[in-house]
Design a protein that fits this description.
By secondary structure, the chain is α+β, with helices and mostly antiparallel strands. 53% of the residues lie in helices and 16% in strands. It has a 5-stranded antiparallel sheet, sandwiched between helices. Keywords: DNA-binding, Transcription, Transcription regulation.
Length: 262
């Protein structure tokens, strides 16, 4: 990265100023590549960096084939979204006389999947800034950085999956308690089961038991809100309190046993 701190400004010359924050990597960033596009000709004039080697195409190939080659490497599911973002950025370039360095329309960040030489796709963050010649404002360049963010995306998806599984498990547990609450009022209920967990249910407030019963009926938070005439936020608060109060060590056993209760 340090090489590009010197090489890229040297390539552009002293009359183009690149924000230093542009070179600063984010946490868990992978390999990067830097590129420069002449906004007047819309031609690539510079592309270097370790990520270029992973793409498997060199600077000369990108220069020769240009934008068509670039788009051909973007994942088909991402192309439309990315091209729409490029149109917005092109408009910003065309309106360069309105651009003030540091303003929002001076920068664009777009994330997409990009095909590598092994035919696999990596998630890429493309960050571009428009830099203007100090003395000749009609000379503008788009300076870009491609960064491999595949690991970040994988970590994020893993976190989402863990959250989804936890929510599923919590929902199963709460429904098991709801089934037990319903069984307390049935003469043919498994009284051994009811007696074993009755003390845990007794700590619930009247409203929490009402919410628990609704959950057992399969109602969503919105439906519970409408039925009990309380806000959706209040329902979520009761859900949270139910989890805190009922998440005892033997919940797994309870879930197994209530699954057999009709």
């Amino acid at each position: 990265m340090n090489n590009f701190l010197e090489e890229l400004p040297a390539f552009l010359g002293p009359d183009f100023k690149i924000p230093q924050s542009f070179f600063k990597p984010k946490f868990n960033d992978g390999e990067s590549a830097f590129f420069v596009v002449d906004c007047h000709t819309n031609k690539l004039c510079y592309m270097q960096g370790p990520l270029v080697n992973e793409i498997g195409l060199n600077e000369d190939q990108f220069k020769a084939k240009g934008f068509d080659l670039w788009v051909s490497l973007i994942h088909p599911d991402d192309v439309e979204r990315v091209l729409a973002a490029y149109v917005d950025f092109t408009h910003a370039i065309n309106e360069y006389h309105l651009i003030i360095p540091g303003k929002k329309n001076n920068k664009q960040v777009v994330e997409f999947r990009f095909r590598m030489k092994d035919q696999n796709y990596l998630w890429i963050r493309e960050t571009k800034v428009i830099v203007i010649h100090k003395h000749q404002p009609d000379q503008t360049k788009a300076v870009g950085k491609l960064t491999d963010i595949t690991q970040q995306k994988n970590d994020y998806q893993s976190s989402l999956e863990k959250f989804r599984l936890k929510k599923e498990q919590d929902n199963v547990m709460v429904k098991a308690w709801a089934k037990l609450l319903e069984s307390k009022n049935k003469p043919d209920a498994d009284q051994t089961l009811v007696d074993q967990y009755s003390a845990d249910l007794d700590v619930l407030t009247k409203r929490e038991k009402e919410v628990l019963k609704c959950i057992g009926e399969g109602l969503s938070s919105k439906q519970i809100s409408d039925k009990l005439f309380i806000s959706n936020n209040t329902v979520e608060t009761h859900r949270r309190h139910l989890l805190e109060k009922l998440k005892v060590k033997n919940s797994a056993e309870l879930i197994s046993r209530t699954a057999r209760v009709s």
